[in-house]
Write a structure and sequence with these properties.
160 residues, flat, mainly alpha, 2 strands, two-stranded parallel sheet
Length: 160
C-alpha cells in the first residue's frame, strides 16, 4: 500500500513540474503578442495551470493524511460563505447568458461562452465541496462525545 501511495505522490509531483512548464511557456507566449485578447486567454491558461499545481499539492497532503477536521463552528461559517459564493456564481452565469443574447461579435461570444462554462464549473465544484468535503469532515460536538464515551470503560458510572 505504501508503494502505491509513494507512486501516486511521485506522479502528482511530476505533474506539478509539468504544470510549472506550462505556466512558463504560457507566460512567454502571452508576452509575445500585443493582442490583448490572445494575451489574456493565454494568461488564463497559465492561471489554470497554477490552480492545477495547487490542487495536486492538496492531493499530496490528502494522501499523507495531514488534512485536519473542520470544527462545527468553522463549518457553519464556511458553509454560509460557500452558499453566498454559489449565489454569486449563479448571478454571474445569468448575467453572461443575458449578454450572449445581445452580442453579435463571434469573438466576444466565444469569450462569454467560456466565462459561462467556467462559472458553471465553479458552481458545481462549490456545491460538491459543501456536500462531499465540508460536511463529512466536520467534527461536531456529538462526534466528540461519541468518541469519548464509546471508548470509556465505565461509560460515566462507577464500575460500569
Amino acid at each position: 500500500m505504501d508503494s502505491q501511495k509513494d507512486k501516486l505522490i511521485q506522479f502528482f509531483r511530476d505533474q506539478m513540474k509539468l504544470e510549472d512548464l506550462i505556466v512558463e511557456k504560457a507566460e512567454q507566449n502571452a508576452q509575445r503578442t500585443d493582442n490583448i485578447l490572445i494575451s489574456e486567454l493565454i494568461r488564463g491558461i497559465a492561471l489554470d495551470s497554477i490552480k492545477h499545481k495547487n490542487m495536486l499539492n492538496a492531493l499530496i497532503t490528502l494522501i499523507s493524511g495531514a488534512t485536519p477536521l473542520i470544527e462545527e463552528s468553522q463549518m457553519e461559517a464556511l458553509g454560509e460563505h460557500i452558499k453566498e459564493h454559489i449565489k454569486l456564481e449563479e448571478k454571474a452565469i445569468e448575467s453572461y447568458k443575458e449578454q450572449l443574447n445581445t452580442i453579435e461579435d463571434t469573438r466576444m461570444k466565444l469569450i462569454l461562452r467560456y466565462l459561462v462554462q467556467d462559472e458553471q464549473k465553479h458552481h458545481a465544484l462549490l456545491t460538491r465541496i459543501d456536500k462531499w468535503i465540508i460536511q463529512p469532515q466536520t467534527l461536531t460536538e456529538d462526534d466528540l462525545w461519541d468518541m469519548l464515551w464509546k471508548q470509556a470503560p465505565f461509560h460515566g458510572t462507577p464500575g460500569g
